[in-house]
Amino acid sequence: MSMYIGEALAGDGNEIAHIDLLLGDKDGPVGTAFANALARQTAGHTNLLAVLTPNLAVKPSTVMVTKVTIEGMRQAVQMFGPAQAAVAKAIADSVADGVITKKQAEALVCVCGVFIHPEASDNKKIYDYNYKATKDAVRNAMEGQPTVTEMLARKDEVAHPFRGF
């Protein structure tokens, strides 16, 4: 498969984490999206590589894209600090756990959409929730979850928590 798609939500309050991600071959559409995310940045949407620490990027190479406009240094520090640390650790742990094989880690890239609420304030929660959401999204992507059968079985019994009514 050339593209794996995952999504997960974790936590609550203003620190809630919602991750949407794509994993795919470097020479496929996800590779193109990865390159474009790094090459075509705009004000308030500064995309960045997920690193465990400076000079130690994760594999698969992961670019984090903001899902909301970053307005101010507090939000920027949250994205470049606890959110980046959480996403990087979750990707690395997904490889260590075998969810992504070592071979796949060299061949794939990841585009990871990260949501940070403008009023988030607890950096520990930002880290914890983004770690869990990223781990869950990677697992969902690599395992093809949910299946079509599960989606169809549950579509009439669930309600989106933010639908507004």
Q: How would you sum up this structure, described in words?
A:
With 165 residues, this protein is of the alpha+beta class. It has a single domain, classed as Ribosomal Protein S5, domain 2 (2-Layer Sandwich), CATH 3.30.230. It is 42% helix and 22% strand. It contains five helices and seven strands. The protein has helices spanning 29-39, 73-96, 102-107, 123-143, 148-154; strands at residues 3-10, 17-25, 48-49, 51-53, 56-57, 61-66, 108-114. Strands 1-2-7-6-3 form a five-stranded mixed sheet, with helices on both faces. It has a two-stranded antiparallel sheet with strand order 4-5. Helix 2 (73-96) packs across helix 4. The chain is globular. The termini are far apart.
Brief sketch in words of this structure:
The model has no long low-confidence stretch (mean pLDDT 95). With 165 residues, the chain is of the alpha+beta class.
Annotation keywords:
165 residues, alpha+beta, Ribosomal Protein S5, domain 2, 5-stranded mixed beta sheet, 22% strand
Q: What order do the helices and strands follow?
A: EEHEEEEHHEHH
Q: How many distinct beta strands?
A: 7
How many structurally independent domains?
Answer: 1
Helical percentage: 40-55%
How widely separated are the two ends?
38 Å
Structural class: alpha+beta
Which fold name is given in CATH as the topology? Ribosomal Protein S5, domain 2
Assess the beta-strand content as a share of residues: 15-25%
Radius of gyration: 16 Å
- Within CATH, the superfamily carries the name Formaldehyde-activating enzyme
